[in-house]
Amino acid sequence: MLGEVTANHLAALTAQQLRVDLSPELIMMQKGNPIKQFGSYKVPLNLKNDQGEQLELEVMVRKTYRSDRVRQHAQRLFVLQQQQQSAGQQSAGQQSAGQQA
To answer: Positive or negative CA dihedral for 72, 77, 78, 79?
Structure first.
């Protein structure tokens, strides 16, 4: 997974998908401990229902077509960088060999 899901992301998505305004402060995620893996998570909220039970937000982080495309793009960039570095090293080697001759 590229990136991470934070309380701010969850608040924005809750407003967008569920039409519920939820302050990020009500989402009880530990600071510096965002979701970094695909899967299903239960995130506690700092809210209670009428019976005094703590409410949870069920979060499903799924692999999407876009995440596949981003990963493929990142891999292509990495390969291009490796090729450029290799070509640069080869040309530097040829230049130093020409200077020695």
So the answer is: positive
The closest alpha carbon to 28, from 6, 11, 45, belongs to 45
The reported pLDDT for the residue numbered 67 is: 63
Closest C-alpha to 5, from 35, 26, 30: 35
Q: Which two tokens stand for residue 7?
A: 């309380």
Cut 0.85: pTM above it: no
Residues 38-69: b if buried by 16+ CB within 10 A, e if exposed? eeeeeeebeeeeeeeeeeebebebeeeeeeee
Task: Look at residue 98 and tell me whether its pLDDT is greater than 60.
Answer: no
Instruction: Give the phi and the psi of residue 48 in degrees, each rounded to 5.
Output: -130, 150
Spatial distance between the Cα atoms of 73 and 59, rounded to a whole number of angstroms:
27
Query: CB count, 10 Å around CB of 14?
Result: 19
